[in-house]
Amino acid sequence: MSTDKLIIFDTTLRDGEQSPGASMTRDEKLRIARQLERLKVDVIEAGFAASSNGDFECVQAIARAIKDSTVCSLARTNDRDITRAAEALKDAGRARIHLFIATSPLHMEKKLRMTPEQVLEQSRLSTRFARNLAEDIEFSAEDGYRSDPDFLCRVVEAAIEEGATTINIPDTVGYAIPELYGSFIKNLRERVPNSDKAVWSVHCHNDLGMAVANSLAGVKIGGARQVECTINGLGERAGNCSLEEVVMAVKTRRDYFGLEVGIDAKHLLAASRMVSQTTGFVVQPNKAVVGANAFAHASGIHQDGVLKARDTYEIMRAEDVGWSTNKIVLGKLSGRNAFKQRLQELGVELESEGEINAAFARFKELADRKSEIFDEDILALVSDESMHG
Ligand code: KIV
Ligand code: ZN
Q1: CA distance 239 to 232
Q2: N or C: which end of the chain has fewer CB within 10 A?
Q3: E strands along 247-293, which residues?
Q4: 240 carries a ligand binding annotation
Q5: What pLDDT, in 10s, does the model give residues 196-220?
Q6: The pLDDT of residue 307 is above 70
Q7: What is the per-residue burial (b if ≥16 Cβ within 10 Å, else e) of 7-20?
Q8: What SS3 class is residue 336?
Q9: What is the pLDDT of residues 150-161, one digit of tens each?
């Protein structure tokens, strides 16, 4: 099924929580789930119901509280896991069971200790079992990107035959390269019979820092129409594909992707802060979209540019993703124009251009000694005492 809509599947509460030190309480998860619903995330993966009673209760509570997004639980390909997932999701408005089994030679042999034929059979039977309990079934081939494409085609074909509605091909260990991953997905979609009966999904880890690029290539080259991601890219090891980055890439470059994303981006910053505060994982200042410096301008040339026209150095609006405005950081690189603008914002009216020049000279002297100049510093610089001796 190839639609013009890109489905955003958030797994902050499941794969994100697998990040060491990021575990969340039931109430914290509920709060984040509500924020995800506010964001208009299409699918919220609430947890892994069979993994513990605590996780079961989280999935159940989220399934009961969330009305506008589909709520999903992960499950291994066995009857107990699938039954637990279905029970936890019983009260959801829209429920999805997400099955996964590893399909790479390494994982099958060393981790599962199963033959490929056993994995194929288990994929088929578990999808059939799950399909009797829910209509919306996602099937994930764990370590899919490192799997043999011929074998993967057979597994995916079986899952679709048994009624899987979404097929997810994870790059579980973040090994992919954008063009190669995109072509890998495209090739599978072209080879699997009835591939258009399912939505194809990408799920990329960030071990080489390419989770977002790989996901976007899976969409653009591969034709995937679901991206799995987390707020702030939270997740095991180097994390998952970052929701805010992938969403803003598709929105900002609509000319290139030509896809609709339902996300209400003005809630992105609040979501990022909530996840950061809940987990204690600090967002790096230069993080795209939600980092403290994402819309900050420090150099004089840039400041002059954005004061004249914001799109000189801003490809998206800070306000569109939840910031109150962009930020002109005054420091040693700042120009007279930015300084003058800040004086106006602070309600300071100097009598002549000469006074402005004098204040600006003192500002530059101070900026050589101090990396960031705050409003209080400027007010001190232009106080009567400073100006007139
Ligand atoms: O990374 C992965 O393969 C996963 C699956 C369980 C979807 O998280
Ligand atoms: Zn994952």
Answers
A1: 9
A2: C
A3: 260-261
A4: yes
A5: 999 999 999 999 999 999 999 999 9
A6: yes
A7: bbbbbbbbbbbbbe
A8: helix
A9: 999 999 999 999
